Amino acid sequence: MRMICAVPIGTQAQFNGTEGAYTRFLTQNMEEDSSNVEMKLSSDLDEEVGGNGVVDNGKPQHPRPAYVSKSGLCNPRNICIAASAIILASFLIGLLIGSSMSKKTTEDNGSACQTYAPGPSDSGSIPIETVPSLDWSAITKLLKDKLTISGIERSLSEFSSENHQAGSGGDEILANKVLTKFKENAMDPWIDTHFVKTQDLPKGVSNKVTFGGKDYFESGYLSYSALGTAQGAILYAYYGQEEDLRQLQDIGIDPSGRVLLVRAGKNSYAEKVANAGKVGASAVLIYPDPADYTLALDAALYGHVHLGSGDPYTPGFPSFNHTQFPPAKSSGLPSIPAQTIRASTATEIMRGLAGRHPPRGWADGSLKNVDYRLGSVNDTVSVEVKNVLTEIQIHNVFGVIKGLVDPDRYLVIGAQRDAWGAGFAKSTVGTSLLLELARAITSMIHEGGFKPRRSIVFASWSAGEYGAVGATEWLEGYLPSLGMKAFSYISLDGIVTGSTFKASASPMMYDLIQSTLKEVSSPTDSSKTLFSQIPGTNWETSAMEPMRMDDPAYTFMTFSGIPSVSVRFSWDKPYPFFGTMLDTRNNLQSKVPNLLARIKAAGEVTGQMALRLVHDHLLRLNTEKYLNIMRIRVNKINKEVMSLQGNGRLPKTLEMKWFMSALGSYGRASRSLFSLIQNSDLEDLEQCRIINDRIMGVERNLLSPYVSPQTTPFRHILLGTGSCTLQDVVTQLAAIREGSASANIDALKNQFALTTWTIQSCANALAGNVWDMDNEL
């Protein structure tokens, strides 16, 4: 055994993370490992870099080999001196080894020295403990003490604003405040600027809906709607979900050419409009039914209808400067006009509708004195959308807390800064919590002795209301680097709107969420944990929700392959004030008792997850979770294939054994990794880095490499959308079973091949070295 003392090292690795130097921050050599410190004799070190071991630029210097002249070696006097030195050194080394072994038996556990088992070769480098860390209980106590209600209150007051729409003067003021806070915390802040296209109403202009000879002028609007005027017979289509439109077709009603009147909720505005476009509708009107939203009847709704994220006029690439790129637009832009209307307007229209009664359950709305009907072909309506496409400049603001062992591996914590109006619940709470977590964690480092192994990047996004535009443009700009180096993303958007814990996340993060909930106290009863207050016997069923396309973390996971989580305290019903001018502090406090205590609890949950991810030797991401999801999907596909082959609708040549083989390879690779972790020395920094890189690669390797990010941005085969996903395989099989015109057996075979090999490739990467792979059937 070797005895190694932990010696203070004055050569901590530095990011080039100054303002405006983000490119250098991301392109830092991935292979550098600041934890590998070479030891030299002090005389040699002094000659090269001076007493502190650092040259003027502040970067660690790697020792150069000492060269001795040939004439010096041939000098007899030097030979005698060298021989005497060797004999003396041998005697001293033997004496020191004996002394060290004697001391080893008497030193207690508090010694600064640690023992390490010898490696495969004595000539190998000796690991040095560069990050003596606090134990986990001390770290969580520090966070709880540093993250205070008084601090949260100060930030809420400072960052509250009545007008901070993306690209506005109010948004820029808040951006400068965030930048100042990061500077005060010595977080080497920088700014990422984009020129993006948004669609807004000109000042003093309203869109118009005409029904029954009466005009209704609506101040709300939906960005990225198709422009112009559309007419058609109105058709009540419930929430505008795919199953709702299918139900209308099943009862013999053709939505083609109709103006669909749908309720807000259940799915996003973009999904409602996309679904309407698929069935040939001419336009869409969306209203908040009082059964879903406790809003004033004249409250206007704001949102966007881009079925995607980011600037839809630079799909797949960043909006740094539009003049550099050819004209392009996202396939997710709708081809039909879409407009939000007030509940009062919807009431007037619904009262004038004739036609059939809707399917069972559709008449459960609460519009007063309204007999819910589907509408007849004579109930015509006109929709006029006057939105204007404009280019705005937005700023994402970043600050970094640098890790000491793997500084080029980082967690990102982000919050949307902009809003349609006050946006208190949507953006102010998240932005305030972002700044308070940054302050608390930097204080833990400077005053409490906390030493993170990996880095934390804090991000304040702009243009979130238009579909995570700021965040997506950043991802598009630095996708290769982020895919390799960012190991997780935590979203703080809309984090507190109620008292019930909910989250949507990568399955790999479920275990981390569960363990965190077991450690964080309830904001209303400190004797209980948040986990104990989750109802039911299956916490995942009760607390975890699928990550939808309008989730602020969705793009990170399905476009960039970064394991992500959105945490929130909410109610069963959607928060009614999102996307309105009524999202104020008073309205949030009317919905959430003990608001500040719940914000603090949300901060402790997200903060502890972040600290776990940057503190532990190995990333708390469970690759085994995806195996269960794959099994469920593949078993469903297998059952459908066997059924279709049994009735002759699918050829026998389409075999499931390759799917099963890929699934088996992933299972073996995951188990092999678990075994490696169980048998690894966690003090071996290089081994930990190798294991962590394999874990990090899973989400990224589940992105299909066979489709373009420009046309199919959400390429995750398990959680994304499009023809590259396992869900689309199921959809294609259903089309074949139903004899649909869209059924295509050749396309299905191609899907089989590409999704199978995506899983197999992910398994191969998880297995590690090519000689460790086990891909037998």
From TrEMBL:
Q: What does this protein do?
A: Cellular uptake of iron occurs via receptor-mediated endocytosis of ligand-occupied transferrin receptor into specialized endosomes. Endosomal acidification leads to iron release. The apotransferrin-receptor complex is then recycled to the cell surface with a return to neutral pH and the concomitant loss of affinity of apotransferrin for its receptor. Transferrin receptor is necessary for development of erythrocytes and the nervous system. Acts as a lipid sensor that regulates mitochondrial fusion by regulating activation of the JNK pathway.
Q: Which gene encodes it?
A: tfr1a
Tell me where it mainly resides: membrane
Name of the protein in its database record: Transferrin receptor protein 1
Q: Topology with regard to the membrane? A: Single-pass type II membrane protein
Q: How does it assemble?
A: Homodimer; disulfide-linked.
The chain positions of domain Peptidase M28 read 396-528
Q: Which family does it belong to?
A: Belongs to the peptidase M28 family. M28B subfamily.
Q: Name one GO molecular function term.
A: transferrin receptor activity
UniProt keyword Glycoprotein present: yes
**PANTHER family, per database record:** N-ACETYLATED-ALPHA-LINKED ACIDIC DIPEPTIDASE, TRANSFERRIN RECEPTOR PROTEIN 1
Looking at the UniProt entry, the stretches that span the membrane are: 79-98
PTM characteristics = Stearoylated.
Q: Name one GO biological process term.
A: transferrin transport
Q: Whose protein is this, by species?
A: Clarias magur (Asian catfish)
A GO CC annotation given for this chain = melanosome
Q: Which CDD domains match?
A: M28_TfR
Q: Name one Pfam family in it.
A: PA
Q: Which residues form the PA domain?
A: 236-296
**Boundaries of every Transferrin receptor-like dimerisation domain copy:** 676-766
* Subcellular location, record wording: Cell membrane; Melanosome
Q: What keywords would UniProt list here? A: Cell membrane, Endocytosis, Glycoprotein, Lipoprotein, Membrane, Palmitate, Receptor, Transmembrane, Transmembrane helix
